Amino acid sequence: MKFDDDAELDNSQVEDRRGISGGKVAAGGGVLGVIGLLVALVLGVDADDVGLSGDSVTDAAPAKAVEKSDCRTGADANTKDDCRITAVVNSLQNFWDSELDGYTPAKTVYFTGTVPTACGKGSSDDGPFYCPGDNKVYLDLTFFEELRTEYGASGGPFAQSYVVAHEYGHHVQNLLGTMDEADDDEGADSDSVKLELQADCYAGVWAKHATTTPQKSTGRPLISKLSRADINEGLDAAAAIGDDRLQKQYEGKVTPETWTHGSSAQRQKWFSTGYKTGDMDQCDTFGTR
Predict the structure, then answer these.
(1) CA distance 77 to 61
(2) What is residue 252's three-state secondary structure?
(3) CA separation for the pair 219, 232 (Å, rounded)
(4) Euclidean distance between CA atoms 243 and 251, whole angstroms
(5) Which own/partner pairs from 249-255 qualify as long-range (CB within 8 Å, at least 24 positions apart)?
(6) Could you give the C-alpha distances from 25 to 19, 43, 275, in angstroms and in order?
(7) Cα separation, 206 vs 202, whole angstroms
(8) What angle do CA 112, 251, 156 make, to 5 degrees?
(9) Is the dihedral of CA 189, 191, 196, 199 positive or negative?
């Protein structure tokens, strides 16, 4: 995965709350207790759904933008983790702005520990998540190391990009009203699973067009190279956080009736569907059993 060295990064699309206390996290349950929280929120569920609710979003210090001096160009994205994520966010926004009529940008918030959101208090333990209440993606960058060491993914730049792209898939769903229409349920054929698989598919659609979507400031794609090996990193990450694999790892058995995100094979299938077709209309997980 390579970025155009001369691309200009838009740091206004990212807020940096790392090191800013977000207060206490409300006690939450979930279908699998602590692991249930991880499964429920990894790659995007409203934090209210697992009880991270009720605290004001005004009790933390103001966020600061990622320093422009640190992340200015695609060359910075090729050498620094923070800047790479910023560049991925920029690329995602460029694509969805060109793809979706009426698209409104969504900021990504870097944080550590806990963070106040319009969906309640978020925690690093929850994994990355999207909050429809404030249209923001929340991300503790240490999750990417956990994705490799705790979940067994091979890791790599595009594994990280897939995670971010999935969260922006939820933003697209929110803009389209899909989130509002979906039931808050569980199970292999539930709306919750279909939402997550559709977000995987949308991530694949972006990946298909990532090297051809021009950046407005330069007229060239921000991402200049995406290899088959990169796509395989994304597929590997998708498999690592499938419900069946997580349940087997932490419970020793697979219980499809409590799935919220879909199996490893399903997640890989729908990301691949998006990537192969490049067409968001092919991401109709709600019309496919």
Answers:
(1) 27
(2) coil
(3) 28
(4) 11
(5) 249/152, 250/32, 250/35, 251/32, 251/35
(6) 16, 19, 37
(7) 6
(8) 45
(9) positive
Tell me if 116 sits within 8 A of 144, measured CB to CB: no
HSE-up (13 A, CA, CB side) for residue 194: 17
CA distance 287 to 2: 36
pLDDT tens string 191-243:
999 999 999 999 999 999 999 999 988 999 999 999 999 999 999 999 999 99
Task: Report the 10 Å Cβ neighbour count for 68.
Answer: 12
Q: Give the span between the Cα atoms of 160 and 144, in whole angstroms.
A: 6
Structure token digits, residue 122: 């978020």
* pTM (predicted TM-score): 0.85
Tokens of 151: 């979940």
Which residue is it, tokens 């659609």?
205
Tokens (6 digits) for 132: 């429809």
